[in-house]
Amino acid sequence: MQESVCRQIVTVKMKEGLHLRPISEIVRIARTYNCEMTISNGDVSGSAKEAFDLLALEAKTDIELVLEASGEDASKLMEEIVQFFESGYKKFEETSDPPE
């Protein structure tokens, strides 16, 4: 069986860049799929399932990131993460539970 591999470029639209709250949402989304995703900012890359990896990207507003996913659910995960970035996190922010 051929493994599905997807690649896409997205732009960080979050006003404060990719900080802990949107990173937490990316990790939550990525962990629900049976595949792996790497997010890269230039020479720095990390797993979409690991918050510390994503913090290391230091992705500021208007930075382009490269997403690469492989595995059984790669296209589904790619679609959801691209939608997350295109929304600028707004759609997800509205549905997230507030911090306690």
Automatic annotation (TrEMBL):
GO cellular component: cytoplasm
Subcellular location: Cytoplasm
Top-rank taxon: Bacteria
InterPro entries: HPr (IPR050399), HPr-like (IPR000032), HPr-like_sf (IPR035895)
Gene Ontology biological process terms from the UniProt entry: phosphoenolpyruvate-dependent sugar phosphotransferase system
Keyword Transferase: yes
Main location: cytoplasm
GO molecular function: transferase activity
Segments forming domain HPr: 5-95
Enzyme Commission number(s): 2.7.11.-
SUPFAM superfamilies listed in its UniProt record: HPr-like
Keyword Cytoplasm: yes
Keywords: Cytoplasm, Phosphotransferase system, Transferase
NCBIfam families: PTS_HPr_family (TIGR01003)
Record-stated family: Belongs to the HPr family.
Protein name stated in the entry: Phosphocarrier protein HPr
Organism for this UniProt entry: Gimesia fumaroli
Biological classification of the source: Bacteria, Pseudomonadati, Planctomycetota, Planctomycetia, Planctomycetales
Gene of this entry: ptsH
